[in-house]
Amino acid sequence: MRPARRLTLTEDVYESVQALIMDHAVAPGARINIDALARQLEVSPTPVREALARLEADGLVRKRPLAGYTAAPLLTREEFEELVEMRLILEPPAASRAASAATASDVDRLRAEADLPDPEPATEGYPAIAAFTAQDARFHNLLAETSGNRMLHEAVVRLRSHLHLFRLHFPQAHYGISAQEHHRVVDAIVARDPDRAAAAMRAHIAAARDRYRPPGATTRWQGWAPPVGLVPSGRRSVSPCTAQALTLPSSSSLVAYSTGSVGCQARNEGDGVGATTPSESSRPVAGSRRTAVMPTPSPPISAV
To answer: SUPFAM superfamilies annotated for this entry (predicted)?
Structure first.
């Protein structure tokens, strides 16, 4: 039973930290303080380090010798276009091969993954779309696996394209459209039509490129602003403002910081500093004496 609890804890911490990074609560490029993060999540540093190692493999954090972990920067416009180009190189041929190689069982699995889930109700930020992100990635990875080309499958998986695109920008209005495009690919595979399958995948990637490219972006861009409120991730939740403190050394004195469109203040309860205005709301973080004070955010910045 102990290993099962350990696995659950590690997965829980991984999902919590992933949500903070995807929501930009830990800003792109910011250094991540492992000890502070462990305190806020009410765990030891070990599962935090394990989570960061997984996130490094995902490409969401970077580790430098003697400097620790930092959140990976957002894609530049050039990197965005290169990512799309790589998908166009890899995935249409994978769909074409799948049309010839897919078994009845493969088709059933692809059909099941093609239907994408709706956003989680009453949930903000990345946790609202986490299931969508995971299932969308499973569909594309499964299709590449069905191609029968192991190296092609591994290349598609290594791109981690969905995490990078959804971190950049997420237009929630396209849920149904993406599912329809997935089913067109599967229909072509069922019809054993390699050319049609490749064309359907090519059209899907091109449409996704237009959906995920933020309007008016120049050299670098920014996705959604961090949501106000606690990041829903089971019982280990961290507010976005508190998350910003995770990139700073812990201190009992007043800490003031501001990133992007959300400004935050942190204070120790009962010390009389960092008083809030009536328009601000404060929420205590479980297991901590630190209170995050969250003003109303300004509109998100589409390009920086």
So the answer is: GntR ligand-binding domain-like, Winged helix' DNA-binding domain
Distance separating alpha carbons of residues 275 and 300, to the nearest angstrom: 26
pLDDT band at 278; cut points 50, 70, 90: very low
Strand, helix or coil at 42? coil
- Residues 145 and 126: beta-carbon distance below 8 Å: no
102-147 per-position pLDDT tens digit: 999 999 999 999 988 876 665 667 777 888 888 999 999 999 999 9
Q: Give the residue range(s) of CATH 1.20.120.530 domains in the chain.
A: 77-212
Cβ partners under 8 Å of residue 65, min gap 6: none
Tens digits of per-residue pLDDT, 193-212? 999 999 999 999 999 998 88
Q: Token pair of 65, please? A: 């010798």
Q: Burial of 128 by CB count in 10 Å (0-12 exposed, 13-18 middle, 19+ buried)?
A: buried
Higher pLDDT, 151 or 170: 151
Question: With contact defined as beta carbons under 8 Å apart, do 90 and 205 qualify?
Answer: no
Please calculate the CA angle 118-124-126 and round it to the nearest 5 degrees.
Answer: 75
- Convert 4-32 to b/e letters by CB count within 10 Å (16 or more is b): eeeeebbebbbbbbbbbbbbbbbbbebbb
Residue whose tokens read 């209005």: 173
Calpha distance 303→214 (Å, rounded): 8
CATH topology of domain 2-74+222-294: Arc Repressor Mutant, subunit A (1.10.10)
In terms of CATH architecture, what is 77-212? Up-down Bundle (1.20)
Distances (CA, A) of 199 to 25, 28, 81, 276: 38, 35, 19, 57
Rounded CA-CA distance 86/16 in Å is 29
pTM of the model: 0.67
Report the pLDDT averaged over residues 32-59.
94
Can you give the pLDDT at residue 141?
Answer: 97
